[in-house]
Design goal:
Blueprint (H helix, E strand, L loop, with lengths): L2 H23 L8 E5 L5 H7 L5 E4 L2 H10 L4 E4 L8 H7 L2 E5 L2 H13 L8 E5 L15 H12 L4 E6 L12 H15 L2 H5 L6 E3 L6 H6 L4 E4 L12
Helix pairs in contact: 3-4
């Protein structure tokens, strides 16, 4: 085993243990939580080595996701960064899930692209991005906006697999400060799931994508099913010269 794989294995095991501990505290099972390995800043050799240990990766940029998906087709690639409408078709060809659907216009573009695609293809899996922190620097639906436009969301999701919600907490040195953001997303999801029109549409909002390297523990305690981990996975690795 090379040194890089050894370090990655140690980091992955440490993260999995923290997830397991958080699940135990909150009455959940670790199998309910999936690590999305964020490879945006990772050297390609690290990504290749990690692919021997883990099979769900996340990329921020559609073009890089498409390029890397072709090189590692056995990996489930998720788009976790902002998606422009002119990159929708490319993304649908390469992403197993899109975490960052942040507007009705983008949702409409995904719906149209999916309808134009091969009828035999699997419907795209999507999450709606919610700006729970209210920061101007973050995109996403406003928490108060989403229930009001929910009928439009359901209409546009015909032919898509709407799986849940995603959010990002405000940056902070204190992981605990992110807890209200994560709790708020879970409560919003629960309220949307319990609506009659959601049930009538046959939609089950099972996924909550929330928590990153610095705050995934409170995210798991508050119900995260997808945690997006980048820097913690690659700690201790030196960029090749």
């Amino acid at each position: 085993m090379n040194t890089t794989i050894s370090i990655l294995q140690k980091n992955l095991a440490s993260i999995q243990q923290q997830i397991s501990d958080a699940c135990q505290r909150s009455g959940r099972t670790p199998e309910d939580v999936q690590i999305i390995a964020v490879t945006k800043y990772a050297d390609w050799s690290w990504v290749q080595d990690l692919s021997q240990l883990h099979n769900v990766f996340g990329e921020n940029r559609p073009q890089q996701l498409a390029e890397r998906q072709v090189l590692l087709p056995q990996i489930h690639w998720h788009l976790i960064g902002q998606l422009q409408r002119n990159k929708v078709r490319l993304t649908l060809h390469h992403a197993a899930m899109i975490h960052s659907v942040d507007s009705l216009r983008l949702l409409e573009a995904i719906c149209a692209a999916a309808a134009a695609a091969d009828q035999e293809s699997t419907p795209p899996s999507i999450l709606l991005q919610v700006n729970m922190s209210g920061e101007a620097s973050k995109s996403g639906f406003a928490p108060a906006e989403l229930p009001a436009i929910w009928p439009d969301v359901l209409r546009l999701c015909c032919g898509l697999r709407l799986c849940g919600l995603m959010t990002m907490a405000a940056e902070s040195d204190t992981p605990e400060s992110a807890r209200p953001t994560f709790q708020g997303l879970r409560l919003l999801r629960d309220s949307l799931q319990n609506r009659d029109d959601t049930r009538d549409a046959g939609i089950t909002l099972t996924e909550l994508s929330m928590g990153m390297s610095g705050d995934f523990v409170p995210a798991v305690e508050e119900g995260a099913t997808l945690v997006r981990i980048g820097s913690r996975l690659f700690e201790g690795l030196q960029t090749p010269h």
